[in-house]
Amino acid sequence: MLEERIQALKRELIEYATLVERMIEKSIQGLMRKETGLLREVIEQDEPKANAFEIELDEHCTNLVAQYQPIAKDLRTILMILKMNSDIERMGDHAVNIAESAAYLIERAPVKPLLDVPRMAEEVVNMVNDSLLSFINEDARLAGSVCERDDIVDGLAKQILRELITYMSADPSTIERSLHLLDIAGNLERIADLSTNMGEDVVFMVEGRVIKHHKDEDAASVVG
Fold first, then answer.
1. pLDDT tens, 122-134?
2. Could you tell me the domains of the chain?
C-alpha cells in the first residue's frame, strides 16, 4: 500500500513538472512569436494551477509520513519528492517572471535578434525534464549529465550579458529593454540551477556521492 502511494506521489510530481515545463516554453514562445495570449495564460491561468499543485503535493507527502511513518528508502524518497516539489514551485515563479518581462518586450522594438535566449530556454527545459526522469528512474548517470549541462546555460548567459552591455553602451535608449532581456536570461539560469540541485540530490540518493560543484541558486548569478 505504501509503495502504491509513493508511486502516486511520483505521478503527481511528473504532472506538476510537466505543467511548469510548459510554462517555461510558453513564456519563451510568447516572446519569440509576440503572442500576448500565451504570456497571459502563464500569468493568469498556469500560475494558480502550479501553486495549487505545490500545496496539494506537499499535503500528500506530509500525510503519507504521518500515516505510515516510513523508514529507510521510502522515507528518503518522500523527502526527496518534498524537496523537488519546492524546487519546481520556484521554477514556476521564474517562468512567470519571464512571461512578465516578455510581455513588456513584445510591445517594443527588439534590441537585437533573439538567438541565444531560445537556445538557452531549450537547454533549460531539457534539464528540468531529465532531472525529473533521473529521479523517477533512479538514474545517476542522467542526473550527472544534468549537472554538467549547467555550464552550457551559464555560458549562454554570459554571452547574452556581453552582447547587451555593448548595446546599452552604444545606445542608452536600449537600457530598459536590455535589462528585461537580462532578467529573462537570469530567470532561465536560476531554473537551470534548480535542475542541477535536483540532479545532485539524485546522485547522492542513488550512489551516496556528493557532487556539489556549481554556485548556489541564492548566490549572485551571472546575469541576475
1. 999 999 999 999 9
2. 2-207 (1.20.58.220)
